[in-house]
């Protein structure tokens, strides 16, 4: 058995008076790659912060093996926007820069005539320099720059990007810079909080290779089931304040979880039947004892009561609440979208694409993929306003009712309350609007609060709620799975499968693309290429 590097024993954590988890036990072994999953709000990020000693438990003990090192990749990394990519990566070990500055200062002193012409002073400065040099070599300072550059390459940053300012990076690229810094530190335990968010598919593939090659233990929070399938040796499920460990990747976990829950439900039903039988016997003996004072009947009733009290109760399987998403759709135009010689030029005169021609028919589920910057989101936005197309023509079927999901939640007014936003979208009474929002897992307090106070996942659910009210038969979805937990993504997949209409979706979620689409269109270098099937079929075709 691998060495145990961390053990959580009966841990309880409360935040704001609410118990996040109680009595939690977890044994973490060296070299494991663990996918930490669970619904939004279950406490996954809190658990990583606890392991990283960024917050303390209320109860319980956390044991670490002697000399354990760890580092955490934050969900929203904070970097210095005035740095270049390379300068920011070089701050991974600030003590090296400090030592270099101190050694340079001492070297300057040794060149000062007042020092080198005074042997005692020179000897003192040289000894100080020697001590610093020993510390520098212990930190492998002479190889530090090459280590940083190697880490940037492994994180997916070509040398041509090293001089780019951090402020110009996307959210996903900023995470990769921070990941490169953690790789330089080489901690024995690497804690990754949604490292794949906002990454395109090539970057996710590179992240998968990096995690698989990491020489240490990795705990990973991710909603990307394809990534979890590719890297996880174990899945840790955090739900209702309890953690359950499963061996294998995400697919193995879903199968084993279903088997365990079925078995637990069967055992629960059998135990409830046995409890009912014992309780009936107790009631019978108590009745006999009351009718005829009989010590034997009283003893028998007590004996069975103790039997019940000693019984290890099997918990009932409680299904997690899932949002209710009803996108029924309806039959519209046969030819839904037609691109005829469509072109687009950016304000800097860069031609994004030219002469695009394509047709999408009723009932198709189309996944639009391609590298970041290819113009996928721009193309979807042109479908929303075909009259504004400067070059060529976009034709939308006359019986098409579009429902649009924006990647950055631009369809939401952050200053409104959830209740006002929904009642602006449809003529609902206050009670009906509250009941409608509760189907999307919003609490009464949230419904009365501002949209600006919602988390990313909650804003995503609100956008989906608004989609339902538009009664669309053409869904245009730009990264709909970003920020959603896996349970909500599965609801979306099931809904799209039953949807009567057409779906056009941009997604970097490879598992979602396999489940939700039957055709892939790749936008690359200003051209469209078509592939039958889902993401796996597309990957096989291009490799």
Task: Tell me the major beta sheet.
Answer: 6 strands, mixed
State the total count of DSSP E strands.
18
Total number of distinct structural domains: 4
Number of helices: 19
CATH fold-level label of the largest domain: Rossmann fold
- Residue share in β-strands: 15-25%
Question: Nearest-angstrom radius of gyration?
Answer: 30 Å
CATH superfamily caption of the largest domain: P-loop containing nucleotide triphosphate hydrolases
The mean pLDDT is 89
Strand order of the largest sheet: 5-6-7-3-8-9
* CATH level 1 class label of the largest domain: Alpha Beta
Binned, the helix content reads 40-55%
Q: Span between N and C termini? A: 38 Å
Low-confidence stretches: none
Sheet/helix structural class: alpha/beta
Keywords:
Rossmann fold; single chain; 43% helix; 19 helices; 6-stranded mixed sheet; alpha/beta; flat; 543 residues; 18 strands; 4 domains; 22% strand
Walk me through this protein's architecture.
The protein is of the alpha/beta class. It folds into 4 domains: 1-33 and 43-69 and 187-248, 3-Layer(aba) Sandwich (Rossmann fold), CATH 3.40.50; 94-138; 253-310; 335-542, Rossmann fold, CATH 3.40.50.300. 43% of the residues lie in helices and 22% in strands. The protein is built from 19 helices and 18 strands. It has helices at residues 44-51, 85-89, 94-110, 113-116, 119-138, 144-155, 171-185, 201-212, 225-231, 250-291, 295-310, 376-384, 418-425, 430-438, 444-448, 456-470, 486-498, 510-516, 535-542; strands at 4-15, 18-29, 33-37, 59-64, 70-73, 189-193, 217-221, 234-239, 242-247, 335-345, 351-361, 365-369, 391-396, 402-405, 474-478, 502-506, 519-524, 527-532. The strands form 4 sheets. A 6-stranded mixed β-sheet has the order 5-6-7-3-8-9, sandwiched between helices. Strands 14-15-16-12-17-18 form a 6-stranded mixed β-sheet, with helices on both faces. A 3-stranded antiparallel β-sheet has the order 2-1-4, with no helix packed on it. A hairpin with a 5-residue loop joins strand 10 and strand 11. Helix 6 (144-155) packs across helix 7, helix 10 (250-291) runs antiparallel to helix 11 (295-310) and helix 13 (418-425) crosses helix 14 (430-438). The protein is flat. The chain starts with a strand and ends with a helix. The mean pLDDT is 89.
